[in-house]
């Protein structure tokens, strides 16, 4: 239900859109657009498999690499928009960033910030601080989140920075295991 509340108010070209929701038996489900082809973790792994052994790059791989380079601006814009709508994502990681192959050959792939299941709203006057424990992925969480301290939007920025570091590592032809 939390994800539905937040996605209802978020309209951005790099954020998944809520199409609908339903309950079937004891299961609550949301319908999102677009239907992704893969997530950023798998996308980076595909690129790493081409770049790390320094293989000859075919056109499809070139488009994937070029798209990954474009994703920095797209994701920064999406996160800035989320924060401008008085929302904190709280679980930014490659598995929560979705990739869709574009029908437009020029763009190759599109990127979407997803999974607002544990996101929180804040009022502009409370400086966006969160005191409650939130779900987290240790590899991507800010130190203050790890230590269960009060944290603001900067924790999302830290998490996105961790994702950006992984993206840049792949683009430089190094394996993610080096991090």
Automatic annotation (TrEMBL):
Keywords on record: Kinase, Transferase
Record SUPFAM superfamilies: Protein kinase-like (PK-like)
Protein name: Kinase-like protein
PROSITE patterns for the chain: PROTEIN_KINASE_DOM
SMART domains: S_TKc
Source organism phylogeny: Eukaryota, Fungi, Dikarya, Ascomycota, Pezizomycotina
Domain Protein kinase: 1-179
Organism: Periconia macrospinosa
GO molecular function terms attached to this record: ATP binding; protein serine/threonine kinase activity
